[in-house]
TrEMBL record:
Helicase C-terminal domain sequence ranges: 264-416
SMART domains, per the entry: DEXDc, HELICc
Domain Helicase ATP-binding: 45-222
Name of the protein in its database record: DEAD/DEAH box helicase domain-containing protein
Entry keyword set: ATP-binding, Helicase, Hydrolase, Nucleotide-binding
Amino acid sequence: MTHVAHIPERRARTVEWPKWTPTELRDALRARGVERPWTHQVAAAEAAHGGRHVVVATGTASGKSLAYQLPVLSRLLTDPRATALYLAPTKALGADQLRSVSDLDLAGVRAAAYDGDTPMADRDWVRAHARWVFTNPDMLHRGVLPAHGRWATFFRRLAYVVIDECHAYRGVFGSHVALLLRRLRRVARRYGADPVFVLASATVAEPARSASVLSGVDCVAVTEDGSPRGARTIALWEPPLLEDLAGENGAPVRRSAGAEAARILTDLVVEGARTLTFIRSRRGAELTALGARRHLSEVDSDLVERVAAYRGGYLPEERRALERALSDGRLLGVATTNALELGVDIAGLDAVVVAGYPGTLASFWQQAGRAGRAGDGALVVFVARDDPLDTYLVHHPSAILDRPVEATVLDPGNPYVLTPQLACAAAELPITSEELPTLGGAAAVEALDALTSDGVVRRRPAGWYWVAHDRPHSDVDIRGSGGEQVAVVEADTGRLLGTVDPASACASVHPGALYLHQGSSYVVDDLDLDNGLALVHAEDPEWTTVPRDLIDITVVRTLREERHAGVSVCLGEVDVTTQVTSYLRRLPSGRVLDQVPLDLPPQTLRTRAVWYTVSADLLHGSAPGGAGLVPARVPGALHAAEHAAIGLLPLFATCDRWDIGGVSTALHADTGEATVFVHDGHPGGAGFADRGFAALVPWLSATREAISSCECPAGCPSCVQSPKCGNGNEPLDKAGAVAVLDVVLRAIRADATATSA
């Protein structure tokens, strides 16, 4: 245990109910135990009731639901014609909030779900009769806006739009949702409505600005939290080194965060503590639940069935059953991905274990806040992965406990987002010149010109009209995964086990890959990318699989460049070509059984990157200011610096290392010098490289600190080794990386000092 922090309790601050609250609503809330609302709930409700767009940004479990329920339900009760729309980033959150409203049992509200799980027979009723529709951006995009004529009555009366957990809308997904909300507003205006937007988030920096960029309307922020909070203990935990095991290239290895979390989860369940354990990956959640169940079988077999895994990719009925069991206490411990970071309001949780930094401080505090609800005390344990950022955080507690959360990064002007969204908008309603400023301005004109050249949009005096036969909505993936999900199907039975993001299919469900689902293991027989299908068979081998790939990067366009003495720093567009060429079969001990070649197609990604170059004189020079590296050490030094920089960028942008990638080379064809690239992992970019360019000095400073402070002699997963390296973490030169970062930072700081002088 590297650090323990105690956060004291906070007392509630309450006020009287707003005078405009209907008596039946006030009585229903009091019957649920809400005698008086908290100050921030009324502040947000008053703003929304007065017609102001508002974002309530207070702590986890601070009752933000009531902040939007008050104005929405009051309007629905006093105006029998009014309607409202609720958007959640996950189905679990939407279902939970629908239950909360339905339990109030208010006559005439008629709240209903309209998402992918809604039976077809119920959808017509929802369109015709529901007054508060609970849905998600995906269904709004594919099922509501394309058929807005069938929703005419609903849109004509639309008074409020609620956007819950708005900090979840970041990167490419957030950029899509920002334009989706603009599409929603223009459809509502078409029917004569101008709804008030109410946004909620427990964790977002600059909430008014972030909410305004997302929604497209000017929002006021309510941030003073009047809710009570129980005392909370936060422990930072670093797993021990394994003396009898070495990793790649003989590097020291720590016990995995998942294995450590399984042990902690076991202890907490034995003590009767209701616990959520957050794991970074679907596979990790399955393995952690299996590990805890195995440990519990040695202690108390009755507890084995009270632990389960929960993750995305489960079928709807499986998710609902697990949510009910967790909510009513039949499950004591759940190992989950971030699928439960938002959503199900599980009262009475005692502890949260966060196994591996979730990528952003916003997500960390959201996960930590899942325990100790209703003002109770809670325990939060952060277990570090063998990773540069995690190691940095457990040894620099202020970086996780005292820093403000990151600003949300999204870019609605990304042409890979803007063009398909404008195609959808034109297919819904002709786009007029007056609408262009809110839809992207000059970038929107450029995108519409491209659609016109493609022959799917036609420019007429009144605007741009969709003229293609088929609507574009089904081809536009707002989650940014680049296409339809790949279905994972058991070949013998035809049973659908789950789905995989198409961008990661070659790495996760290639032929021969081990695939886990609800504690059962399967081996992939065939991957059909054209038809989005991976066929598997049940098998329980002793090995796991690790993909290996080749990556190449080409500079398409340099957007910004800063030159220093021997160092240049750039931001621009790049093409990243990746090809999975083989995979390793590895035993739990870390020993590699073999390497199996694969024949999979290369995939090219046009995105944005930040990169820096270093001159040969600086790299090889031994005089003061030079790195003093012989040519043979340069590739390993750059490679190690690249790995560590990828690991530390999440400190400065709302991303995690799986949102970004990197390439380093001793002589790049496009720059003519030694170059380190860090690129966004999404088409067109998601804003992460831009944030890295803006924060280059603190980012590279933290990277250098993480490498130099690590106790390993020559590089390990805690500093310069990467779990996603396609080259098997070869070559790597830890000391060389520090030398490279020193000369880069020295050159930039020297220019900054000269400029300020």
